[in-house]
Amino acid sequence: MNELIAEFIGYLVGVKNYSDHTATGYEKDIRDFIGFCTDFNGARPLPADLANIDTICFRAYLANRQRRGLGHASTARALSSLRGFYRFLGKNCGIKNEAIGLISAPKIPRKLSKAIAPVDVENMHDAISEIDAREPWIAARDWALVVLLFGCGLRISEALGLKNKDIAGFPEVLRITGKGKKERLVPVLPAVWGAIEKYMRLRPFGNGMDDALFRSVRGLPMSARMAEKVIEALRHYLQLPDYVTPHALRHTFATALLADGADLRSLQELLGHSSLSTTQLYTRVNMAEITDIYANAHPRAND
Predict the structure, then answer these.
(1) Closest CA to 29 of 85, 78, 69, 73
(2) Fewest CB within a 10 Å sphere: which of 26, 33, 177, 259?
(3) DSSP letters of 177-227?
């Protein structure tokens, strides 16, 4: 069984281009299910036994997760992992199971973070200057990161994954590698390059072409947690709501463009969403609020 799971994880990373983090989540879910089956049936299942697991066992597994206090989102992800595993088994190992197709995942309400209020975005620049007053290059870095997330709608992982060579010459269009190693082209506004250029001019290290663009105080590549702390510090300093996060900056970018008339397909390409249904969630946002954000805070408003 261990060899079969390892083969599946290798397939996810090598063929499907899943990240190591995502593949690890799949492996954890599958091993959790195998452990449950061992207890439920009194013996650890062999690979051939996977074809005979019935709906009773699958539903008992979902109920077991609920008793353990695991949420609907976690259980839905686990069921998705199992379905992917079974698809792999059917195509590559001749192990098919029709029962899993009869199991419904728990419904999860899809939520979006709120867009950031115009005045709060406007106040971030001065707040960063005051928070990082002793380290001008850190202030420049933090503002460059905020502007990049807000002005280009990048995920935090995409922004922090940029290297100096990726922005050489400050091109009008940036090539971004997103989830699943999918590439997309994102236009970059002069205001974004202006903030990044100032940061690069002030930073004391990390100027090699292969170096990460955003650096920590110690000169190491900036981590996602460090970036989250930047926004947390701004949130506390300005006494902003809890929904003000790095992702909220991406959300504000999307809602602003939607308010300006961007069609969903174009927005889907800019955000790197694999499914249009994900992009369609933005249509639920109050359009008057979006228009206000765009007019007062988005960099394109001044073009």
Answers:
(1) 78
(2) 177
(3) E-GGG-EEEEE--HHHHHHHHHHHHH-SS--STTSBSSB-TTSSBPPHHHH
Same domain, 202 and 265: yes
Domain end marker among 102, 132, 148: 102
Cβ burial of 102 (10 Å; 0-12, 13-18, 19+) is exposed
pLDDT digits (tens, 9 = 90+) for 275-291: 545 545 555 554 445 55
Residue 78: name the closest of 40, 26, 129 by CA.
Answer: 26
Asked if residue 72 lies in contact with residue 56, where contact means CB atoms within 8 angstroms, the answer is no
Q: What is the pLDDT of residues 188-238, one digit of tens each?
A: 888 889 999 999 999 999 889 999 999 999 999 999 999 999 989 988 888
Separation CA 254–CA 138 (nearest Å): 27
What is the domain range of residue 161?
118-302
Question: What letter does residue 46 receive in the DSSP assignment?
Answer: P
Q: Indicate which residues carry an active-site annotation.
A: 155, 179, 247, 250, 273, 282
| Residue from 126, 79, 118 nearest 100 by CA | 79
Q: What's 66-127 look like in SS3? A: HHCCCCHHHHHHHHHHHHHHHHHHHHHCCCCCCHHHHCCCCCCCCCCCCCCCHHHHHHHHHH
How far, in Å, CA of 132 to CA of 139, rounded?
A: 5
Residue 166 — φ and ψ, nearest 5°? -70, -25
**CATH code where residue 50 lies:** 1.10.150
C-alpha 121/C-alpha 109 separation (Å) is: 28
Please name every residue paired with 184 in a beta bridge, in sequence order, or none if there are none: 176
Locate 174 and state its tokens: 């940036």
Buried b (16+ CB within 10 A) or exposed e, 161-190: bbbeeebeeeeeebebebeeeeebebebbe
